[in-house]
Amino acid sequence: MNIPESNFKKIKNYNPLDRQNLGRPNVYKTIKVMKDDGTGAEIDFGYRIKQFKCKNGCEHHNHLVCVVCGQYSYLDNTTLEDLQDKLAKQNSFVPKKHNFQIYGICKSCR
Amino acid sequence: MEKEIEIFERHVQDKGLKHSNKRQYVLKTFLNSQEHLSAEDLFQRVKQHHPTIGYTTVYRTIKLIVESGIAEMVDFNDGVKRFERKIGREYHAHFICTKCANNFEVFDKNIEGLSSKLADAQGFLPQKHRLEIFGLCKKCT
């Protein structure tokens, strides 16, 4: 699929209400291309919250997701990686990547 | 299973829907399975004994099962939405083999402890967590 280079730039400043600038189908198509070629990743937080992030140069994060406002923050990776390695070793599994999300209510929504 | 059927029937009633034997059969098939089933998997199982139950009925019933809190969706990053029983089950992590697509559950109390610790550190009130580990299983290494 040929997607104009300018779309990738416009997508950063995309405003869903400003249809003259870039249409919604263009955004979805470009996101699909980015997902397919590995430059972007879709994170499904459940609760019908899906976010999309650029993977280039970013390290993997685990998330704390608020089920009230949908905001998320990053978690410290090191402790989880130790636990992941321990569990994998116990189950004769070679871990490559993981998804870890905690759902709950954030400070401001409590 | 009685408890789940009761919850499901109450939810169906609250939604203003009538009792249906077909829906209940789909629910029973789902509850009898110990695996992570997709809507398509469930449909294939239901079809073996009840060929008159269509895919749409199965799909809509799965949606009702999730809404009622009996099951939840699990995502193994392969584009297929699978469902697993939630009520009466302890928290567990999922290990998914990226080569043979085999998946299994791991129960460990440390995951919950870690989750509470990490959430507390950010003033977050945790409700549930999800851990999926992707890699290679014993057979594929």
Structure, described:
The complex is a heterodimer of chains A (110) and B (141). Chain A is an alpha+beta fold. Helices cover 32% and strands 28% of the residues of chain A. Chain A has a domain at 58-110: Dna Ligase, domain 1, CATH 3.30.1490. In chain A, a hairpin with a 5-residue loop joins β1 (40-44) and β2 (50-54). Chain B is α+β, with helices and mostly antiparallel strands. The N and C termini of chain B lie far apart (38 Å). Chain B is globular, with a radius of gyration of 17 Å. Chain B is 44% helix and 23% strand. Classes of the chains: A alpha+beta (110), B alpha+beta (141). The interface between A and B is medium-sized, with 34 and 36 residues.
CATH superfamily of the largest domain in chain B: Winged helix-like DNA-binding domain superfamily/Winged helix DNA-binding domain
CATH architecture of the domain at 58-110 in chain A, by name, is 2-Layer Sandwich
| CATH topological fold name of the domain at 58-110 in chain A | Dna Ligase, domain 1
Return Rg of chain A in Å: 17 Å
Shape of chain A: flat
Distance between the termini of chain A: 46 Å
Biggest interface, chains and residues, is:
A-B, 34 and 36 residues
Low-confidence stretches of chain B: none
CATH 2nd-level architecture of the largest domain in chain B:
Orthogonal Bundle
Helix content of chain B: 40-55%
How would the blueprint of this fold be written?
The complex is a heterodimer of chains A (110) and B (141).
Chain A: H1 5-12, H2 24-36, E1 40-44, E2 50-54, E3 62-66, E4 72-75, H3 77-90, E5 94-105
Parallel strand pairs in A: 3-5
Antiparallel strand pairs in A: 1-2, 3-4
Chain B: H1 2-14, H2 21-32, E1 37-38, H3 39-49, H4 55-67, E2 71-75, E3 81-85, E4 93-97, E5 103-106, H5 109-121, E6 125-136
Parallel strand pairs in B: 4-6
Antiparallel strand pairs in B: 1-3, 2-3, 4-5
Helix pairs in contact in B: 1-2, 2-3, 2-4, 3-4
